[in-house]
Design a protein that fits this description.
- With about 350 residues, the protein is α+β, with helices and mostly antiparallel strands.
- The chain has a five-stranded antiparallel sheet with strand order 4-3-2-1-5. It has a three-stranded antiparallel sheet with strand order 6-8-7, covered by helices on one side.
- The protein contains 13 helices and eight strands.
- Helix 2 packs antiparallel against helix 4, helix 4 runs antiparallel to helix 5 and helix 5 packs antiparallel against helix 7.
Length: about 350
């Protein structure tokens, strides 16, 4: 016992308080881990959303809170070394408020971001505007946190707020293209000519699904799995074809030609029968749609007409058109309906050609 006391007396006076504080912090971290693990299991079986969100938002702030408790205990520990006591007292005076404010900022940021992610799946407007809304909310939370932190440290924020008015004008002029893209993105979200998930065609010819409407640009994923990134200011002034608005269902025209000797009434009956079967049997067809036929052209070698089918989405038209052409080709053979080849007549009398027999 005397040896232990002699050993402790040889150590600096600040060692034992630091060791005790580290033990306290370790014990609190262990308790936090055990309690959060138990609560997460209970939250996973709960039908509510906010309990899981609250536990997730508390992870980082709890670490900072435990560290603040350690500093508080260290400050209250008796120490013979007055210099060490003054140093700890001075550090906790500034460090603890900073940690508490940062913990609060992280907590509110996690909570707001989690709520935006959760409710974006229930609202199409929020789903499309999620990146911008999260960016605005995060900027607001961190901005308030910085002002509170400065006020906590004794720094007057009134001159800072006043100078922001003049500084914001200079920043607005310097960031004019960025702000133009930002407000164009807000305009796209409010006016909603396109939404996340829509299949669109740009005036430059690219087609694809709207993947993200960000604060600066919109990402469009094309069918070959490439991504077109359009600045919001350019997109807001472009002509856009939205194939998913007002409905995903779209017409699928199929061009067909038959021989001049064909019975057009019989052709129309056959075409409509196959169209009706296709709409009811094909996975991409619209069973409630009644196909229509329009005869429109006396062509060089055939009478042409258009059959109007309907598909559930834009890219379904390729599968429906291929299946319908195969059905018509087979049915036309059975019914004796001829799809003629192009005919070209060569007028030899007009050009008066000469044919020489080289064998002589």
């Amino acid at each position: 016992m005397n040896d232990i006391r002699a050993f402790t007396e040889l150590l600096p006076s600040w060692v034992m308080p630091v060791v005790i504080v580290l033990v306290v912090i370790g014990a609190l971290l262990l308790i936090k881990r055990l309690v959060l693990t138990r609560l997460n299991r209970l939250a996973s079986t709960s039908p509510y959303f906010y309990d899981s969100l609250l536990l997730d938002a508390l992870k980082i702030p709890l670490y900072m809170l435990i560290f603040c408790i350690g500093l508080f205990v260290l400050e209250r520990m008796p120490a013979k070394d007055s210099e060490f006591s003054k140093m700890i007292e001075g550090s906790t005076l500034y460090v603890m408020p900073i940690l508490l404010v940062i913990a609060a900022v992280f907590f509110f940021d996690r909570m707001i971001s989690g709520m935006i992610n959760h409710y974006s799946h229930k609202s199409s407007v929020l789903y499309s505007s999620r990146p911008i809304v999260k960016g605005i909310s995060r900027s607001f939370v961190f901005g308030i946190g910085i002002l509170v932190l400065l006020g906590t440290l004794g720094i007057s924020i009134t001159p800072l707020v006043a100078s922001l008015g003049i500084g914001s004008l200079a920043v607005a002029l310097a960031l004019q293209p960025t702000l133009e893209n930002f407000f164009s993105g807000v305009q796209l979200l409010v006016d909603r000519p396109i939404r996340v998930g829509d299949f669109v065609e740009l005036d430059s010819g690219e087609q694809g699904f709207v993947e993200k409407i960000g604060w600066r640009s919109t990402w469009i994923k094309t069918l070959p799995n490439n991504t077109v990134i359009m600045p919001n200011s350019v997109l807001s002034e472009s002509k856009i074809i939205n194939y998913f608005y007002p409905s995903k269902i779209m017409s699928v025209p199929v061009e067909v030609g038959v021989h001049y000797d064909s019975d057009l009434d019989h052709v129309e009956t056959v075409v409509l029968e196959e169209a009706k079967r296709l709409m009811q049997e094909h996975e991409f067809g619209v069973p409630t749609h009644d196909a229509v036929v329009f005869f429109h052209t006396f062509d060089n070698s055939s009478i042409n007409f258009t059959v109007i089918l309907k598909g559930q989405e834009f890219f379904h038209q390729f599968f429906l058109r291929a299946a319908y052409i195969k059905r018509l080709h087979k049915r036309f053979k059975q019914e004796g309906i001829v799809i003629p080849y192009p005919i070209r007549a060569i007028n030899t009398e007009q050009e008066q050609p000469r044919f020489e027999n080289k064998s002589n």
